[in-house]
Amino acid sequence: MQRASTQVVNVIEPVVTGLGYELVGAEFGQAENGTTLRIYIDKPEGILMEDCAAVSRQLNAVLDVEDTIKSAYLLEVSSPGVDRPLFTEPQFAAQIGQEVKVKLTDAVGGRRNFKGPLIAVKDGLATVEVDGIDYDLAISDIEQAHIKGRLT
Which Gene3D superfamilies does the entry link to (predicted)? Predict the structure, then answer.
């Protein structure tokens, strides 16, 4: 998965918030059928299928008119789920103490993948502890990140 561009997010966010939802994030991925634009939405009481369908209908119309995405894609709208994706510094900060899985665009300390507790977030950096070593990771360099959810 690759984070959606700021241009795409700027088109999507007003639609999502205008319908009463929080835009958690947006990313592009490759599937068997081509490119998928995955939009994550949330609200305090949780997300139902009807919510996803309503947002999908609105976004399809707006994205077609705006023509922001030049290639063919499949639009998918969903809740963040148990393994909640993280896109922004406030989202990372809200998950301090949680187990996270992070993939960077470029290696830091010889590695691109990190899995461990998120111990701090400050000034655009997320600090993840792996095997007793603290890694300060620039949030802007993160390709993909999510909490490791636990079902109880």
Answer: Ribosome maturation factor RimP, C-terminal domain, RimP-like superfamily, N-terminal
